[in-house]
Amino acid sequence: MAGNGERREHRVRGVAARAGGWSARHRWAAVGIWVLFVVVAMGLGSVAGRVDVSDDDQLKGETSQAARIIDDAGVDEPAGETVLVQSRNGALRATAPEFRAAVADVVRAVEGTGEVTAVRSPYAADTRTISKDGRTALVQFDMRGDPDTAADRVEPVQKAVAGVADDHDALRIEEIGAASMNKTFDDAFGDDFQRAEYSAVPVALGILLIAFGALVAALLPVALAITAIMATMGLMGVVSHLQPMSETANSVMLLVGLAVGVDYCLFYLRREREERMKGRDPQTALRVAAATSGRAIIVSGVTVCVAMAGMMFTGLAEFQAMGLASLMVVAVAMVGSVTVLPALLSLLGERVEKGRIPFLHPTKRRNGNGGTSGSRFWSRVLTVVLARPAVSVVVAVGALLAIAAPALGMKTQNLTLDQEFGDSLPIVATYDRVNAAFPGGSDPAEVVVKADDINAADVRSALADFRARAVSSGASRGPVEVTVHRDENVAIVDVPLVGGSDQDRAEKSLALLRDEVRPDTLGAVDGVEAPITGQVAGSKDFNDQIVGSVVPVFAFVVVFAFLLMLLSFRSLTVAITSIVLNLLSVGAAYGILVAVFQHGWGASLVGAEGVGAIITWLPLFLFVILFGLSMDYHVFVVSRIKEARLAGRTNEAAIRHGVVTTAGVVTSAAVIMVAVFSIFGTLSMQSMKQMGVGLAAAILIDATVIRGVLLPAVMALLGERNWYLPTWLRRMPDLTHDDEAGIEPAPVPREGGDQVRV
């Protein structure tokens, strides 16, 4: 192999082997330090508390500017609620006595709860909340108290409105607003998320029981993953004072932590068990596992951390929180896998096989040489692949490109309520009815005007001009409402956008306001700030920022992953093929997402529906997560191939050995990941379905087509070029593991019957 005879002055040897060796020799100390670390991290997190991402942190640009003005002025925007009163069959108009009586009953009912303020009847002189056809009217009011907790107090108001609705069969009387929507979603999906998170652990444990065939061995990875997650939750509280966190970041951390925590332990345990089944004593088996799988875990963990760090380049607070939380849990799980796990295995010894499950324990599948027989299925697949590597590459790449093809037409947007939830919630239908009668009324654009003197004549005139031009320009059909906070020198202008829930049309209306109406009115007054925010503006700004961050995130992740592979395997070829194969699996995942969720092909098979778009944040999120997690398998498989090649096997024999001996652990790890991610694909929200299906599909493709077919086929074609390293790169640090590691080799049968040592 290229580079075998080069000098090794720059070798950085055996970090994982040394860590594992120390832990095995000081096992009680290692376990005690880990337990102390978890307890201290949780304690510090509890004391520090968690700071969550605020509105003015969410986005850069106008949305953030508007939130900052409101916060600095100390303006408390109450949680607004609306009651829709609408003729069911169109016979009753708002002028009818029964209609008026119903509106009066709604006003009395909501005021009677004591939870609302500023109730506004559609018949009041200063309101215009009767639709043009006269068959729909809105009763508007604000919830008392902190708007962030309004959802906790809105239930009595909802019950009062429902009581009025029962008394007026001819009318549709329904409540909608920030508080009622938040409560509805929390009630419908809060338990849904919890069930998904809680069920992930028993699902992973069940798969591990099948993989290991022993209760103790199956419990170890789950225990390590859970303790890593607990420690990270504590650390998130401390770190949140520098980088605010969120519930979304917490959920992603749980997902990633369980996946990598279990995977890393799985890799380590399977190698330790494999060495014991070859006849090594437990101490030697542990040292081999530390020097080989331990190193693969470190390389994989660092690569995943680098990929997660890519989210920091988005500039989006939510993504930065998810990236940092994921990075931390991967780092903690990685450290735990190469420290406390060897200590526990040293303590348990043969007792790690306690609780054996009949017919599942691998001792039932040992071959005549004392080793494991490997995967018969993948052995047969490899026979075909290695016999025709060129054909295998063409077929596999062709299939992946065909699967990825729909991604060329990918459309991204923030999903509307009806896209996100379909007809599963009655409040979504209410939202559509309000938007149909009052386009944009459910989510108006909000212009936050800050002036040195909001009462100045030129400012008042500019506000009046803006209000008139917003309608005359065609951006809004009104009513445009202005709320002036004189003491704070701030005014808030609510502008219902033409287009309503149609995101594309609403964004055109927003562009009219930002690019034409505002510059000609409010923009003409010196010292006036007038950023435009709201749901449509936030979605547009989010989209723009995501698109702008794609190139830096992509470049950061790919370049650093390439460098890590180059340092870890000292092969330019391996580094390049690693990147290309990962990009193929990500592209295939994109294609599946677009086919299923944008075009609706086979959507019913996964309990979803075609909604015409992929949620904005998902493509970049999937790229970062998948690029990191895919390296788990790649590093593990290629490490075994290189290990076998260094032991003297031929290129083809090394490929067969590496793939077949890792097939069981890679399959088990992939099944766990696919199962965990698929749980999130069962949630009712389309965005969560998209995330779950995208992750599960990509991991499945990566562990089968990529690692089982394409990787061995490409390496077979390349031959000795797999290990090519230019002369000018040979002086770089050598992070490959020490193949001797002070371990007496055990004989392993080479294909053909003679013995080699590994």
Explain what this protein looks like in three dimensions.
This protein is 61% helix and 8% strand. The two termini are 16 Å apart. The strands form four sheets. Strands 2-3-1-4 form a four-stranded antiparallel sheet, sandwiched between helices. It has a four-stranded antiparallel sheet with strand order 7-8-6-9. It has 758 residues and is an alpha+beta fold. It has helices spanning 15-25, 27-48, 55-58, 62-73, 97-112, 155-166, 178-212, 215-239, 247-277, 282-291, 293-309, 317-338, 340-348, 376-387, 389-404, 417-421, 426-437, 457-472, 503-520, 535-569, 572-598, 618-646, 651-681, 686-718, and strands at 80-87, 116-120, 136-143, 171-177, 412-413, 445-450, 481-485, 490-495, 532-533, 614-615, 747-749, 755-757. The protein contains 24 helices and twelve strands. The longest helix has 35 residues, at 178-212. It is elongated.
Give me a quick take on this structure.
The protein is of the alpha+beta class and 758 residues long. The protein has helices at residues 15-25, 27-48, 55-58, 62-73, 97-112, 155-166, 178-212, 215-239, 247-277, 282-291, 293-309, 317-338, 340-348, 376-387, 389-404, 417-421, 426-437, 457-472, 503-520, 535-569, 572-598, 618-646, 651-681, 686-718; strands spanning 80-87, 116-120, 136-143, 171-177, 412-413, 445-450, 481-485, 490-495, 532-533, 614-615, 747-749, 755-757. Helices cover 61% and strands 8% of the residues.
Average of the residue pLDDT scores: 83
How much strand?
A: 5-15%
Sheet with most strands: 4 strands, antiparallel
Order of strands across the biggest sheet?
Answer: 2-3-1-4
Low-confidence stretches: 1-13, 364-373, 737-758
Give me the secondary-structure category: alpha+beta
End-to-end CA span: 16 Å
Coarse shape:
elongated
Strand count: 12
Helix tally equals 24
Give the fraction of residues assigned to helices: 55-70%
Radius of gyration computed on alpha carbons? 31 Å
